[in-house]
């Protein structure tokens, strides 16, 4: 099909009535769908059919949505261009010679091309916001703990959230209204705990004397898309403008000018820690990935390694055949970073940097209601251009990964085009500040 946005096209009908009835949704292929193949963009899971629905899929069905298929993605979410998929690359509907971004490139392309009204992606280090920016659509990465990860095939658990993609801020927010909320199957969404083991919920539960409800319960994200930003203070993260493509910075500045004309105050904010964010992110993400992906051994999950030789040899064959190059690279590096003797040098340092990034954001939100950066420092690369240089690809994530390290919410909203290619602006909010970023983004839409 056009753009190669889908790995599997299959219609899954929802309830007759609900807030999403009559709307079509494309679902990233690392989100489990009962009875419908879920490959994670990997040959390893070419014929894997989950026996249950992810919580978000259950909620889509209850809301009356029609799921139209499973979307193409970088293998296990590892990439930023959707070129590491075992099912071939996706073309950017805005310009077919260019990548759609990734790893949720199929989801963003499906929405941009009108093949689905809405889509779900997952964002471990930018994978919803990056393809939203490159395809000229809206993408939201929720606060950690806002949306259940039950049924999401894990890449790096401590960093990732499922998030909505849509043509408009209001539509993306309405989809967030449907998928967010507590889930007994995912302990990190629990807010009814007495404060000591509630994961992301800790401080909120404690502040409420342990009786707090989940932040999504009383929220109406779609209603926050009212464009009313008069009196809002936007912090411009200067560190993340340095090194960005001039054409991207021009669009970013023009959009800020427009916001100022709507009554926004801007202040410059510097986050000293962010220069270490990409390194810290990749150490943590690869470490978690090396552990998560151990289950793909041809016995528990994945293609069979055959019964020749001993168990170890069969296991190795399954992983040699089933995984692509980028996934193997990350498992090797992650295993190395966690191994005895190196743990303190890499993993512990990365955790320290992560704590520093969190503190920097806390300080910044003392001075601003939301923060703004270009979503991506570059325009969408041409297809095939970036695959040979993984380091260059990792650096492309400079503006998105700090948000995951700090477990914060962020949105990417279209901010015009440069050379015919879409540019995205990112707003970052304080913890559970989804309404503030939705409001700010809706003002950019004008
Ligand atoms: N590009 C980043 C990575 O490869 C982010 C991926 C993601 O968010 N799933 O890890």
From TrEMBL:
EC number(s) from the headed UniProt entry: 6.3.5.7
Annotated Pfam families: Amidase
Annotated segments matching region Disordered: 1-20, 73-108, 185-214
Active site (catalytic residues): 28, 103, 127
Keywords for this protein: ATP-binding, Ligase, Nucleotide-binding, Protein biosynthesis, Transferase
EC category: ligase
GO molecular function terms listed in the Swiss-Prot or TrEMBL record: ATP binding; glutaminyl-tRNA synthase (glutamine-hydrolyzing) activity; transferase activity
Chain ranges of the Amidase domain: 12-437
CC annotations in GO: glutamyl-tRNA(Gln) amidotransferase complex
BP GO terms, sorted: translation
InterPro entries: Amidase (IPR000120), Amidase_CS (IPR020556), Amidase_dom (IPR023631), AS_sf (IPR036928), GatA (IPR004412)
Classification via Gene3D superfamilies: Amidase signature (AS) domain
Catalysed reactions, semicolon-separated: L-glutamyl-tRNA(Gln) + L-glutamine + ATP + H2O = L-glutaminyl-tRNA(Gln) + L-glutamate + ADP + phosphate + H(+)
Its biological purpose: Allows the formation of correctly charged Gln-tRNA(Gln) through the transamidation of misacylated Glu-tRNA(Gln) in organisms which lack glutaminyl-tRNA synthetase. The reaction takes place in the presence of glutamine and ATP through an activated gamma-phospho-Glu-tRNA(Gln).
Record-linked HAMAP family: GatA
Family of this protein: Belongs to the amidase family. GatA subfamily.
Subunit comment: Heterotrimer of A, B and C subunits.
Protein name in the entry: Glutamyl-tRNA(Gln) amidotransferase subunit A
Lineage: Archaea, Methanobacteriati, Methanobacteriota, Stenosarchaea group, Halobacteria
The encoding gene: gatA
């Amino acid at each position: 099909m056009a753009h190669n946005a889908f790995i599997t096209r299959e219609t899954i009908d929802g309830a007759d009535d609900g807030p999403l009835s009559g709307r079509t949704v494309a679902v990233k292929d690392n989100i489990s769908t009962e009875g419908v193949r879920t490959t994670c963009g990997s040959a390893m899971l070419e014929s894997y059919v989950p026996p249950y629905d992810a919580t978000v899929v259950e909620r889509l069905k209850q809301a009356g949505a029609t799921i139209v298929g499973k979307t193409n993605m970088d293998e296990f979410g590892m990439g930023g261009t959707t070129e590491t998929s075992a099912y071939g690359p996706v073309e950017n509907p805005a310009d077919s010679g260019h990548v759609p971004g990734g790893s949720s490139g199929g989801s963003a392309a499906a929405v941009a091309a009108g093949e689905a009204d809405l889509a779900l992606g997952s964002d471990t280090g930018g994978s919803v916001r990056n393809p939203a920016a490159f395809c000229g659509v809206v993408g939201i990465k929720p606060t950690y703990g806002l949306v259940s990860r039950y049924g999401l095939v894990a890449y790096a658990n401590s960093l990732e959230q499922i998030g909505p993609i849509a043509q408009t801020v209001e539509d993306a927010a309405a989809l967030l209204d449907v998928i967010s909320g507590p889930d007994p199957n995912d302990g990190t969404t629990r807010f009814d705990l007495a404060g000591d083991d509630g994961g992301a919920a800790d401080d909120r539960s404690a502040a409420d004397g342990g009786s707090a409800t989940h932040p999504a319960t009383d929220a109406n994200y779609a209603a926050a898309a009212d464009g009313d930003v008069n009196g809002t203070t936007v912090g411009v993260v200067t560190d993340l403008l340095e090194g960005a493509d001039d054409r991207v910075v021009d669009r970013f500045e023009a959009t800020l000018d427009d916001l100022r004309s709507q009554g926004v105050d801007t202040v410059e904010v510097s986050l000293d820690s962010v220069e270490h964010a990409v390194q810290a992110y990749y150490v943590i993400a690869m470490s978690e990935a090396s552990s998560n992906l151990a289950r793909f051994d041809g016995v528990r999950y994945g293609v069979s390694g055959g019964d020749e030789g001993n168990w170890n040899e069969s296991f190795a064959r399954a992983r040699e055949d089933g995984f692509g190059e980028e996934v193997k690279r990350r498992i090797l590096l992650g295993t190395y970073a966690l191994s005895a003797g190196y743990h303190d040098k890499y993993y512990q340092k990365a955790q320290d940097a992560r704590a520093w990034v969190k503190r920097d954001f806390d300080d910044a939100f003392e001075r601003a209601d939301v923060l703004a950066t270009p979503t991506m420092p570059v325009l969408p690369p041409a297809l095939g251009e970036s695959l040979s240089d993984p380091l260059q690809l990792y650096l492309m994530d400079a503006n998105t990964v700090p948000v995951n390290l700090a477990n914060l919410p962020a949105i990417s909203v279209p901010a015009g085009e440069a050379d015919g290619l879409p540019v995205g602006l990112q707003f970052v909010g304080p913890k559970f500040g989804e309404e503030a970023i939705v409001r700010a983004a809706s003002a950019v839409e004008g």
